[in-house]
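Duplicate of earlier report; MFS transporter input re-posted below.
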Amino acid sequence: MKKLFNNKLFLSSYLADVISNFGDTLYYLALMNYVLFLPDTKFALAMITVSETLPILSGLFMGIWADRTKNKLDTILATLVVRFGLYALVGLLMGFTPALWIVAVVCMVNFLSDLAGQYENGLYMPLSLRVVAAEEREIAMAFKNTVGGILMIVFRSSGAILIGYMSYQHLAFFNAGTFLVSLVIMVGLRPAFAKLLKENPIQEVEQTETEAGLIKGIGQSLKESYQAIQNIPVLKTSILTIAGINTVGSAVPPLVILAMKEFSDFMIVNSGITLALVFNLFSVGYILGSSLGMAFFKHVSLSNLLKFCTGLSVLLFIGFYLHNIYIVMAVILLNTMTAGIINPKLYALIMNELPEDKLATINAGMGTIFNIGMLAGQALVALMVTLLSVTSISLIFLLLSVGLLGYTVIKPKKSSFKFRKKQYEIRLPRL
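Output:
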């Protein structure tokens, strides 16, 4: 950890990311308040939801594009310039009387900004391999998750205060300013990044557009990325398991609300306090897991942690089935703590084992799978709530969780020999 704290390039680049995240969080809160002044608030909220959801479907293509971009360092700076310009435009629009057309433009800006953000993240991944050593990557991710979770609570609290003192136009310009500050920091860091890239150039993706066209080139990228994942069975199993966990876990927020409505004893003091406690547990658990993971669970395997997490999902829906808020809250805390431990290990596995010219593609593809799992769970709950009781929905998700646990326990056994053999084949040339 001391070595990480002495890594000024890592800390400075993370600071640039944190500053832009603060602007995003503040502006999102402001936008949610802005739509309350519109006559058709529901339609405005629908547009915002769509603009936040669509980037989930575009992440994979942004990852492929990032992997195929040659001058990654200067392109990162260009994305920050674009995002600054987009939100400066929003600042100008916010000077007009609140109207639905402004929300429509802002939604388009949010969508384009999210695309630029996905692209930027993909561009930075191979650069980060040169900033943080392999043995430090799990610690680095745990540090970022811990600090990020704490800062998110601070950002939301301070944002709620600033909204009361700043106009929506000023908040939009403030958000644009955070990207400008991030740009200034990254420009200052450019010589250090350029030096690292000169010493260790990034492995470039082979371009195939001239031979077979762009579509075939994208298809080839996907095929090669899939093959890279196939070579690491534990990663393949982890992707499917986490997607399943996201699918069943997405049912928690609506089930909490519905359970409080149907059962008066499914709350602590009142509904407001119960909701605050439940949603804060998600942040607190993740922070605790990220901060304590390296100290106490460094040598626990990713496979065992995923088994434990799926087992907790079973207990979670048992709590819902029994209408016991205390079981639900305890499991939410343990589950999010486990997620906080898993994520740095998964990140280190991806960064250390996969080819760097496929990192953005594979990472974006995984994110798409995880998010689609979450959306599938939300759609399933939305359908069920119109037809079934909370108890019936809980039972269905309990059975899904049992099936997921069975897959997590049985699947590694089937591929364990293959994994050990592949590890041997990888290490043999180094002997």
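Residues 209-213, 414-431 have pLDDT under 50 and may be disordered.

Merging into the original ticket.
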